[in-house]
Design the sequence.
């Protein structure tokens, strides 16, 4: 799916694409990422999606692992942006938002009721302060709420908002 | 996405490599009841809108995929949509003025929806007719290239200019 991300230096919108990832291209700790996406893609029931720029389709700007959890339904196992997109010196922003919105879209299309449009994930850090900040960020940025088991959830109305905002869903 | 959405506060990272996300049966049942209650509290209109948003997402995702693994007919998307909103194929055919006897041919790609059909679908399902047409044409091109492999390579501008 064609999307737009923001080049931080220029403020310009840049053409990008979200597509299903191939195991050969999955990043790992060895590449400076926090997760071994090259291993997670091999787990049963997991699908990997990558965001790349249109003019550099082999450079991964962000990566997401999506699955259908037996309890939570549509589940975002892992999401991370490339090391060169981290922090105030990051090259591109909006990468995570586009991937999360894409996961919301998958939930709205592929999943049946009662889980249609829901997306669950865990905001985790080994540092409790960082974890609290992450939870707060997801509440504010993506209107996620906490479910009874302590996982964060995006609900259908917000899923639709994110699809509209990040993926330019245009009704007729 | 819109330009004003730069967030400089914190970087998104999701995942817990130490946790398998296995729940007890009691926890599982609790979450399932919680989810059912949330779903049941949604209005019928919201549920239909959820389905239509998913439909538009899937159409766009397929239309913009340069290398689809397999051809998905426009009819496949419509069939799934009708099933989810619980509309019979025959009722749908009659409503957009296609003979119910022929509707399966439209669903399996044997017959193409006309522009008139697509304009009706645009209004009914809140989706741009352009993207419906794009999917039909995309599939026709993929099929033609497969079944006439190399045949069109013989056509060149130089030959036309010399003709």
Sequence:
């Amino acid at each position: 799916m064609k999307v737009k991300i923001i080049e931080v230096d220029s403020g310009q919108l840049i053409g990008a694409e979200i597509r299903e990832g191939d195991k050969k291209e999955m990043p790992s700790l060895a590449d400076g990422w926090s997760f071994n996406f090259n291993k997670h893609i091999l787990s049963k029931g997991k699908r990997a999606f990558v965001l790349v720029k249109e003019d550099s389709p082999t450079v991964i700007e962000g990566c997401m692992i999506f699955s259908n959890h037996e309890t939570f339904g549509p589940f975002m196992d892992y999401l991370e942006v490339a090391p060169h997109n981290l922090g105030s010196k990051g090259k591109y922003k909006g990468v995570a938002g586009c991937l999360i919105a894409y996961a919301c879209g998958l939930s709205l299309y592929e999943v049946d009721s009662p889980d249609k449009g829901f997306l669950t994930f865990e905001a985790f850090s080994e540092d409790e302060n960082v974890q609290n900040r992450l939870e707060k960020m997801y509440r504010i940025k993506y209107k996620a709420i906490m479910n009874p088991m302590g996982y964060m959830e995006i609900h259908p109305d917000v899923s639709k908002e994110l699809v509209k905002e990040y993926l330019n869903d245009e009704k007729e | 996405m819109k330009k004003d959405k730069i967030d400089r506060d914190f970087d998104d990272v999701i995942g817990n490599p130490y946790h398998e996300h296995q729940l007890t049966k009691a926890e599982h049942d609790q979450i399932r009841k919680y989810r059912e209650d949330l779903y049941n509290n949604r209005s019928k209109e919201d549920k239909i809108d959820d389905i239509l948003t998913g439909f538009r997402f899937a159409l766009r995702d397929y239309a913009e995929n340069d290398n689809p693994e397999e051809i998905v007919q426009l009819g496949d998307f419509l069939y799934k949509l009708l099933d989810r909103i619980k509309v019979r194929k025959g009722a749908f055919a009659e409503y957009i003025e296609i003979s119910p006897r022929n509707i399966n041919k439209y669903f399996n790609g044997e017959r193409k929806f006309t522009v008139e059909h697509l304009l009706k679908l645009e209004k009914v399902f809140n989706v741009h007719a352009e993207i419906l047409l794009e999917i039909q044409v995309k599939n026709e091109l993929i099929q033609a290239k497969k079944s006439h492999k190399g045949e069109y390579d013989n056509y060149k501008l130089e030959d036309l200019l010399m003709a």
About this structure: The longest strand of chain A covers residues 56-69. Residues 50 and 68 of chain A are 18 Å apart (CA to CA). Chain A touches chain B through 77 residues (CB under 8 Å). The radius of gyration of chain A is 15 Å.
